[in-house]
Write a structure and sequence with these properties.
Number of helices: 2
Largest sheet: 11 strands, antiparallel
Shape: globular
Distance between the termini: 31 Å
Helix content: 10-25%
Structural class: mainly beta
Strand order of the largest sheet: 4-15-2-3-12-9-10-6-5-14-13
Number of strands: 15
Radius of gyration: 18 Å
């Protein structure tokens, strides 16, 4: 499976070349929903937990905000999802939550770079490689402020409190998302679909203060010392 990462501007992209096997049997076309969101199965990346494709009406709900009270072992983490900002993303997130996809999962990645301060969650495997068995298109933000250090460059500020999707490239959204606990400079390649409430920001600060189990080489990009386990509790009627 592809590892979904949120990368700083200083990190270059690496690509691996390969030669297809001779006379490979053509794979069946993946199933795609017929609505505006076109959620598409990813047979090469099966679901980390069984979950069907999300509903995909011709008109995706694109008004209003949805409060989602997330419970963690580090404290409450209330989210407010914005249907107008990213209707397909919100619809997928709520679908996964209704099916218990996020329950008892671990936020597997914490970064503490000066320009990238996020907690990444949404993978039941806890490895950064798990997803829901489908992908969907980006709904990229257009109003993020430019980087203060290089206003004319490609970087944009994902400000403290935003909730956005992690991905492995264009239109590869799945279940993994990140919570910004400190202003972060990124290319505007990540769909923003909500915000964290003040109580949730205190929880994020508590997680960040717990520190990180370093990766090889001592990089400040790894596992929170105090694991953050999620339980999503949806209000009735959602």
């Amino acid at each position: 499976m592809k590892r979904l990462l949120v990368t700083t501007l200083a990190v270059g992209a690496l690509c691996a070349a390969f030669t297809p096997a001779a006379q490979a049997t053509p794979a069946a076309s993946p199933t795609t929903t017929h609505g505006a969101c076109q959620y598409t199965e990813t047979p090469d990346e099966p679901a980390a937990r069984p979950v069907p494709l999300p509903p995909d009406p011709q008109h995706t709900p694109d008004r209003g905000k949805v409060d989602v009270p997330v419970i963690t072992n580090q404290g409450l983490l209330p989210l407010k999802l914005d249907r107008a900002e990213a209707p397909c993303t919100v619809q997928s997130f709520l679908h996964l939550a209704r099916h218990g996809f996020f329950n008892s999962t671990t936020c597997h990645r914490l970064t503490a770079y000066p320009t990238l301060q996020v907690l990444q969650c949404g993978d039941p495997t806890g490895t950064g490689e798990g997803g829901p068995g489908y992908s969907f298109r980006d709904e990229l933000p257009t109003d993020l402020p430019p980087s203060t250090t290089n206003p004319s460059g490609p970087g944009r500020i994902y400000s403290r409190g935003l909730v956005a999707m992690a991905n492995a490239g264009p239109d590869t959204n799945g279940s993994q998302f990140f919570l910004v606990y400190g202003d972060s400079t990124l290319r505007p390649d990540y769909t923003v679909f909500g915000t964290v409430g003040p109580l949730g920001l205190r929880t994020l600060d508590r997680v960040a203060a717990g520190g990180i189990v370093p990766n090889e080489g001592g990089a400040v990009d790894g596992t929170p010392v105090r694991k953050t386990n999620l339980e999503l509790v949806l209000p009735l009627g959602l």
